[in-house]
Design a protein that fits this description.
The complex is a heterodimer. Chain A is built from no helices and 11 strands. Chain A is mainly beta. By secondary structure, chain B is mostly beta strands. Chain B has no helices and 11 strands. In chain B, the strands form 2 sheets. In chain B, strands 2, 4, 5, 9, 10 and 11 form a 6-stranded mixed beta sheet that branches. In chain B, strand 4 and strand 5 form a beta hairpin. Classes of the chains: A mainly beta, B mainly beta. At the A-B interface, strand 4, strand 5 and strand 10 of A face strand 4, strand 5, strand 9 and strand 10 of B.
């Protein structure tokens, strides 16, 4: 009865490198969301995906950030050319139905540190 | 702008105490309010509230929503050290995507033995 699985738990990247964060939703869930938690701030919505489709990416920076949820495999949040301001905890969540109808279930997060 | 404000920011109590955590909100077209418990990992879902005045209860935790005054409270009775965590409140708007939770910054609760 696995929950939302994220890896890695911790990721250290130097400025300019790429970061790839992975998320496998709960079994039976086809709705995936990425949130970011900056220090001393609340979680902020980034992107909502269903299998092979980006439904809403309005919370994601237009440059350097991308997300996908392929037919097979986990959802990936990709950050290219990382900068120090990207250091944060990135949480993935999944739900059975679209978020407002059933609560989001979060993974343990990936803590990204950019040096 | 939609926002959620939680108070207090942090709280230290002793085992056995009762605590009340507050969440006030301003949101256009409210749909629901959720409480989560965040330890050193995943925020864990506690309650989803949609109607005023109906208390949700789970063991020593309970929560209620007041849609007129735009706030919710989370009560924890007979606190235990395992209740130490950050408690997050999130509001879901009825428009602009019901998955765009608006989170507060949380209340950090520490329960001393």
């Amino acid at each position: 009865n696995a929950g939302v699985m994220q890896n890695p738990r911790h990721l250290v990247r130097r400025r300019g490198q790429e970061a790839r964060l992975r998320c496998s939703p709960m079994k039976g869930h086809s709705h995936v969301y990425w949130y970011r938690q900056l220090p001393e701030e609340g979680l902020k919505f980034m992107v909502y995906l269903q299998k092979e489709n980006i439904i809403d990416e309005s919370g994601m920076p237009k440059e350097r950030f991308s997300a996908e949820f392929p037919k097979e495999g986990p959802s990936i949040l990709r950050i290219q050319q990382v900068v120090r301001g990207d250091s944060a905890a990135y949480f993935c969540a999944s739900s059975l139905a679209q978020g407002g109808d059933s609560p989001l279930h979060f993974g343990n997060g990936t803590r990204l540190t950019v040096t | 702008e939609d926002k959620v404000v939680q108070s207090p920011l942090s709280l230290v109590v002793h085992e056995g105490d009762t605590v009340t955590l507050n969440c006030s909100y301003e949101v256009t077209n409210f749909r629901s309010l959720l409480w989560y418990k965040q330890e050193k990992k995943a925020p864990t879902f506690l309650f989803m509230l949609t109607s005023s005045g109906i208390e949700k209860k789970s063991g020593r935790l309970s929560s209620i929503l007041d849609k007129k005054e735009l706030f919710s409270i989370l009560n924890i009775t007979a606190t235990q050290t395992g209740d130490s965590a950050i408690y997050l409140c999130a509001v879901v708007p009825a428009t602009s995507g019901t998955y765009k939770y608006i989170f507060g910054t949380g209340t950090r609760l520490k329960v001393l033995a």
